[in-house]
């Protein structure tokens, strides 16, 4: 018994606002009042007291598409018809709001395409509807598709009177381009030999599969054939490979256990692809032929797949407060541009460092006091039993503000300290990254070590002043110590007391931290390599655990060297002297004092600092032609439609332009951009004066 598929008008309702979530795929519905305000801003026509948008109001003025003077008015009317469900050439507020709701649905791309073909607005697609839209596409004008052939009759019946509902339409649209490609092959092979020339192969792929081509693939279509005729199986495998590139990426990640930089051989990929029946050995052969013409190596990594994979139509909806393109291409990067890039990173790093330091400063104060607490060299009881006891006693005796004693000099110093660390790490990583975007582990460690060494210029003076202010609260006296008095007492050279210990701590810390952060972040990225802010925070915090704990002995030695020894306490002349005396007087456990407090301070501090740093780069985006933080790239539509999102694109309309671009890039339904222009517009679509 055939399965009954209900009428789409009844079984595909637009979800209410409560069901839309603010994620890359689902958008929160806009409020009615705000949406009406936007609608009235662009509605140029008024009839019987009601306002309406014309086709040009909606497509050209509101969406910002087809902005050329000689725009194709047929294409504009077709796109406007997606929202114009009454098909009267005008868009009412209720239709405008209904389309905003449709854009919030999880299958918004297919819904949008369905409404493009539903020319009568009755919830079905007839043969006449389908033919009308297909005949207006650029593809049909270049390689006409037989609208009387067996493919069409299988869907619409021999007499072409069958109506296609939404669910059936999605399959029709999926199959249409594969059938179009095969029909194009047959047209180039009239003798039925099963072969076409390399130039015919290029012509078909460029015209029929244009939406799946990246520049690297397009430029090597003839080269990949090696001058031989192209067989039908090879042709089908090639088009299937282009369609399945997202699946190929998953096979690669399975083969490398999620490592996006590990090169794999053909045999390794074939072995991993055994579980995927959609991927054939011929497709793997073609994949390595394609990458071989570009990179000429026997291995591929994730960046190779990204270079030949078509960009996805969706994008992560990220609001940018600023977006500047400093250079047109990486080739335009001058020395001055690189200096500007470092200055930009330094500024963002300063702000991020200040935020991170403020959040965890109370933990840092407890850590310092625990590390300065000595046993065996000072007459009297130990002040604190543990970190929690120290925290409570600071609150009791010094008040809540006592937890922030010494914060001001910390903020004055932490900004350049964190900024120089982040900037130098990024700078050295950029220099050691190859042209495929990969960097070996030793280079990551070297970049981190250089970052740690560079920061000591700022860290040491900052630390010695901060530490002396933090331990000052332990002495019950009426004299309040100020930061400036500490600086005057120490002098320039005194500010660098304990610099060797500081280097001993900061170089290995950064050498451990930054590579760990980069790899942890990559592991926590989604399947497209994108990192949500929470994954950035988690990666930064996780990386801080081994880095902070393993360098605690150096931190203890640095603290002892920089604190003023009170009467009866042991004094130290240098790193080695401090190491020997601490070991002799207090034992090896003394080197790990404050480890918990240090981890609880450094781990969240760097988590907050790194997430702030990367989010600032997303919000205040400047393209200097160099590398951007991995995981921050927005997936943009590869299309001729401009990305024209404005502040008026609220709710579901945030995704309107990417989704309309997706109708082109996913289904190949490119509409002509240029044509007769507004002069030929029908009375129902005239623009406001």
Note down, in words, how this protein is organized.
The protein has 689 residues and is mainly alpha-helical. It has a domain at 335-373 and 383-623: Mitochondrial carrier fold, CATH 1.50.40. The protein has helices at residues 8-11, 32-42, 55-62, 73-83, 93-102, 108-117, 127-135, 138-142, 150-156, 166-188, 198-208, 215-219, 232-243, 245-256, 266-272, 281-295, 302-308, 335-372, 387-398, 407-432, 441-472, 483-494, 499-524, 533-550, 552-562, 575-586, 595-619, 656-667, and strands at residues 45-47, 50-52, 195-196, 230-231, 322-325, 620-623. It has a two-stranded antiparallel sheet. Mean pLDDT is 79; it is low at 1-25, 313-317, 634-645 and 677-689.
Helix content range of the residues, please?
A: 55-70%
Mean pLDDT, all residues = 79
Strand tally is 6
Low-pLDDT stretches: 1-25, 313-317, 634-645, 677-689
Structural class: mainly alpha
CATH superfamily of one domain: Mitochondrial carrier domain
Major β-sheet, in short? 2 strands, antiparallel
Individual helix count: 28
Write down the Rg. 32 Å
CATH class call of one domain: Mainly Alpha
Named CATH architecture of one domain: Alpha/alpha barrel
The fold-level CATH name of one domain is Mitochondrial carrier fold
User: How far is the N terminus from the C terminus?
Assistant: 59 Å
Major beta sheet, strand line-up: 1-2
Rough outline:
elongated
β content, as a range? under 5%
Topology of helices and strands:
Blueprint: H1 8-11, H2 32-42, E1 45-47, E2 50-52, H3 55-62, H4 73-83, H5 93-102, H6 108-117, H7 127-135, H8 138-142, H9 150-156, H10 166-188, E3 195-196, H11 198-208, H12 215-219, E4 230-231, H13 232-243, H14 245-256, H15 266-272, H16 281-295, H17 302-308, E5 322-325, H18 335-372, H19 387-398, H20 407-432, H21 441-472, H22 483-494, H23 499-524, H24 533-550, H25 552-562, H26 575-586, H27 595-619, E6 620-623, H28 656-667
Parallel strand pairs: 5-6
Antiparallel strand pairs: 1-2, 3-4
Helix pairs in contact: 3-4, 4-6, 6-28, 10-11, 10-13, 13-16, 14-15, 14-17, 18-19, 18-20, 18-27, 20-21, 21-22, 21-23, 23-24, 23-25, 24-27
């Amino acid at each position: 018994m055939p399965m009954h598929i209900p009428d789409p008008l009844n079984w595909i309702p637009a979800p209410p606002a409560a069901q839309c979530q603010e994620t890359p795929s689902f958008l929160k519905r806009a409020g009615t009042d705000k949406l009406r305000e936007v609608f009235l801003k662009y509605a140029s026509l008024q009839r019987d007291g009601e306002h309406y948008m014309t086709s040009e109001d909606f497509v050209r003025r509101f969406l910002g598409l087809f902005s050329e003077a000689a725009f194709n008015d047929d294409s504009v009317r077709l796109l406007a018809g997606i929202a114009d469900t009454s098909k009267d050439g005008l868009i009412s507020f209720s239709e405008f709001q209904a389309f905003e709701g449709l854009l919030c649905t999880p299958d918004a791309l297919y819904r949008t395409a369905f409404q493009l073909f539903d020319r009568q607005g009755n919830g079905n697609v007839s043969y006449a509807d389908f033919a009308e839209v297909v005949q207006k596409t650029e593809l049909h004008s270049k390689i006409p598709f037989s609208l009387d052939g067996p493919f069409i009759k299988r869907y619409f019946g021999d007499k072409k009177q069958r109506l296609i509902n939404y669910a059936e339409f999605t399959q029709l649209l999926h199959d249409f381009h594969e059938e179009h490609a095969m029909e194009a092959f047959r047209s180039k092979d009239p003798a039925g030999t099963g072969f076409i020339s390399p130039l015919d192969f290029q012509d078909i792929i460029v015209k029929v599969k244009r939406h799946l081509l990246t520049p690297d693939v397009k430029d090597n279509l003839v080269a990949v054939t090696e001058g031989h005729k192209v067989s039908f199986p090879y042709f089908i495998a090639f088009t299937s490979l282009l369609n399945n590139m997202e699946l190929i990426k998953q096979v690669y990640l399975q083969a490398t256990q999620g490592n996006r930089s590990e090169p794999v051989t053909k045999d390794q990929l074939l072995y991993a692809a055994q579980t995927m029946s959609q991927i054939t050995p011929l497709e793997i052969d073609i994949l390595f032929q394609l990458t071989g013409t570009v990179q000429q190596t026997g291995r591929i990594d994730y960046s190779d797949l990204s270079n030949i994979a078509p960009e996805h139509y969706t994008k992560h909806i990220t609001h940018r407060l600023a977006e500047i393109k400093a250079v047109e291409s990486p080739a335009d990067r001058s020395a001055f541009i690189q200096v500007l890039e470092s200055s930009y990173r330094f500024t963002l790093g300063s702000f991020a460092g200040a935020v991170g330091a403020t959040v965890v400063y109370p933990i840092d104060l407890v850590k310092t006091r625990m590390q300065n607490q000595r046993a065996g060299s000072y007459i009297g009881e130990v002040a604190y039993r543990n970190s929690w006891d120290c925290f409570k006693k600071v609150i009791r005796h010094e008040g809540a503000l006592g937890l922030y004693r010494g914060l001001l000099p910390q903020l004055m110093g932490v900004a350049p300290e964190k900024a120089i660390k982040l900037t130098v790490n990024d700078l050295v990583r950029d220099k050691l990254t190859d042209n495929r975007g990969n960097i070996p582990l030793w280079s990551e460690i070297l970049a981190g070590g250089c970052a740690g060494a560079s920061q000591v210029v700022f860290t040491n003076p900052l630390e010695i002043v901060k530490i002396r202010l933090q331990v000052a609260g332990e002495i019950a006296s009426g004299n309040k110590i100020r930061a400036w008095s500490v600086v005057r007492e120490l002098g320039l050279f005194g500010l660098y007391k304990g610099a060797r210990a500081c280097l001993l701590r900061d170089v290995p810390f950064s050498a451990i931290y930054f590579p760990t952060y980069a790899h942890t972040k990559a592991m926590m990225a989604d399947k497209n390599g994108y990192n949500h802010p929470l994954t950035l925070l988690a990666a930064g915090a996780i990386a801080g655990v081994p880095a902070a704990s393993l360098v605690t002995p150096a931190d203890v030695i640095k603290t002892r060297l920089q604190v003023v020894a009170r009467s009866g306490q042991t004094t130290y002349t240098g790193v080695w002297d401090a190491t020997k005396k601490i070991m002799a007087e207090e034992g090896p456990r003394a080197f790990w004092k404050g480890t918990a407090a240090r981890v609880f301070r450094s781990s969240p501090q760097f988590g907050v600092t790194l997430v702030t740093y990367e989010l600032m780069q997303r919000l205040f985006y400047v393209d200097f032609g160099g590398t951007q933080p991995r995981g921050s790239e927005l997936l943009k539509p590869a299309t001729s439609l401009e990305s024209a999102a404005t502040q008026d694109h609220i709710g579901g309309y945030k995704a309107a332009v990417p989704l309309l671009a997706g109708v082109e890039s996913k289904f190949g339904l490119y509409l002509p951009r240029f044509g007769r222009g507004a002069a030929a517009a029908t009375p129902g679509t005239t623009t406001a004066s």
